[in-house]
Amino acid sequence: MDALIINNLVKHFGDTKAVNGISFSVSQGEIFGFLGPNGAGKTTTIRCIMDFIHPTAGSIRILGKDTQRDGADIRHQVGYLSGYVRFYGQWTGHEHIAYAKKLNGEKNISDELIERLAFDPSIKTKNLSSGNRQKLGLILAFMNQPKLLIMDEPTNALDPLLQNTVYELLGEAQKRGATVFMSSHNLAEVDRICTKVCIIKNGKVTAVKEITALENVRVYTAHIHLANTVDLSMFKKIGAEIIESRNDYATMKITGDIGPLIKLLSTLPVKDLRIEHASLEDIFLTFYH
Amino acid sequence: MWVIILRYLRDKWKTIVTYCVAGFGFMWIYVAMFPSIQAQSESYAKLTESFPKAFMKAFGIESLNLDHIENFLSIEHFSMVWPIMAILLVTSLAASAIAKDIENGTMELSLARPIKRLSIFFGRYITGLIAIVVFVITSIFAIVPLAALHNVSYMFSHFVTTAILAALFCWAMFSLGMMFSAFFSDKGKVSMSMGGLLILMYVINIISGLKESLQNLEYLSFFHYFTAENTLVHNTLKPEAVWVFIGIAVACTAVGAWRFSKRDIAV
């Protein structure tokens, strides 16, 4: 069963098309990465999922229920972490947690999370550092052991040790059957914890792929040193993207079959040649561009 | 909804107490000074005769007969100081209830929880009504202990009638403020809208009293209906005032609740 289904979601703010007809689904128990450059429409999509803003068109279903019709009911099962986490400055962490407990009215593991994240809940949130605010946001998201976690940049402002703790928490949530939908700019993090990703650009989905499938995408970076200067347009003709060039040296990216490049190079005076498989980060970036 | 009510009360208790203390304090000042004013009431009455009738009407004063505490309070306290306190209190409560929370990005803390938007709206709305009741009781029925303290005689039923009108006046203004708060994402805009509208109503009320041809404009102003002289001096509550305040309160509440449940909420 799919935990989250987004069907042809459109969200316009006046003339601005923030999200322009995206569709994808997230299976139960999956850690799903939601990627894209700034302004791609990630946060708008997340706000539509949480029903903070209403879609111009399209529908969103969480655990089989419509977010606009059954929003309050659905949120019993959803943990949310904002990318711009804000708190009441005069309240302590304890007060925020107590407020959430009373509204959710269910069992919670806030004490355990406070300990694991080394968070002091007795301090007023106006006096907390950005890292500690993030910790409180994480506690509020995880405390009710939700079936679906919606997280916008979950490790933002956390040090590497705490990032690992968050990865552990996400892993544990997945083990108990929860689904995680997270946006992130940290591609290494996505590579490490996500099982599937959706890449969005200019409000449209450019790819929805398993991480393993992405790893099999053939993207090469070729560093070519020639004996003399040649016309680089011949490389462009075979689909290579010139990243850097100066006199007799060029770095280019080739997506797909590398055969045409080898064939072309065999006709040129090559002094030195180095061809590398692109990292997963580079593969992500090809979708961003 | 009780969670929302209790939490908002806890956040706002300092504001509510401050206004209640101020309301009590002003009443104390007026009651304490009344015996000396009362001794000179005849001089004030003669002074009234020299004032233009239109001027007196514009400011809701029929006569400067200060031989009773009710007359004195209706002129000195309830024609200016008390309404200003009430306006500031309800505007502050309404602007904080929705718009400030959206402006600060803290509304998401409630919206992300399993609670309906209407429960958030009405939770805070009810908190505002509780604050209004507490303020009205504290600031108006302060007369009971203060009159005993300063040996001033008063008509209790007149203060009850005034408290009813005052509560209705506050309710209508608060509902108007909540409606603005549901539309805007900025506390300042709510305060500006409320302030602008109430100043306009106040000016309309004065202008309508100055020129006979503009007299009908008075029906557009809250201050035409909130005349403490009727309630405090004559112990009469005009039905039109009751219905106008109830009508505005219900209409603004309905529009505000509808808007809050339908609008986009994002920082």
Summarize the structure.
The complex is a heterodimer of chains A (289) and B (267). Chain A has 289 residues and is α/β, with parallel strands linked by helices. Chain A has helices spanning 42-49, 71-74, 93-104, 110-116, 130-142, 160-175, 187-193, 211-215, 233-237, 259-265, 280-288, and strands at residues 2-13, 16-27, 31-35, 57-62, 65-66, 78-81, 148-152, 179-183, 196-201, 204-210, 219-226, 241-246, 249-255, 270-277.
Descriptive notes:
The complex is a heterodimer of chains A (289) and B (267). Chain A is α/β, with parallel strands linked by helices and 289 residues long. Chain A folds into two domains: 2-210, Rossmann fold (3-Layer(aba) Sandwich), CATH 3.40.50.300; 219-288, Alpha-Beta Plaits (2-Layer Sandwich), CATH 3.30.70. Helix content of chain A is 32%, strand content 32%. Chain A has helices at 42-49, 71-74, 93-104, 110-116, 130-142, 160-175, 187-193, 211-215, 233-237, 259-265, 280-288; strands spanning 2-13, 16-27, 31-35, 57-62, 65-66, 78-81, 148-152, 179-183, 196-201, 204-210, 219-226, 241-246, 249-255, 270-277. Chain A is elongated, with a radius of gyration of 23 Å. Chain B has 267 residues and is mainly α. Chain B has one domain (2-262). Helices cover 79% and strands 0% of the residues of chain B. Chain B contains twelve helices and no strands. Chain B has helices at residues 2-39, 41-49, 53-58, 69-104, 107-111, 117-140, 143-150, 156-183, 187-210, 222-225, 228-233, 239-262. In chain B, helix 4 (69-104) packs parallel to helix 8 and helix 6 (117-140) packs antiparallel against helix 8 (156-183). The A-B interface holds A 47, 50-54, 71-76, 78, 80, 82, 84, 86-88, 90, 96, 99-100, 102-104, 140 and B 3, 7, 11, 104-106, 108-116, 262, 264-267.
Count every helix of chain B, treating DSSP H or I runs of 4 or more residues as helices: 12
Extract low-pLDDT stretches of chain A.
none
Which structural class best describes the helix and strand composition of chain A? alpha/beta
Q: Any idea what the shape of chain A is?
A: elongated
CATH class of the largest domain in chain A: Alpha Beta
Most extensive chain interface and residues per partner: A-B, 27 and 20 residues
User: Mind describing the biggest β-sheet of chain B?
Assistant: none
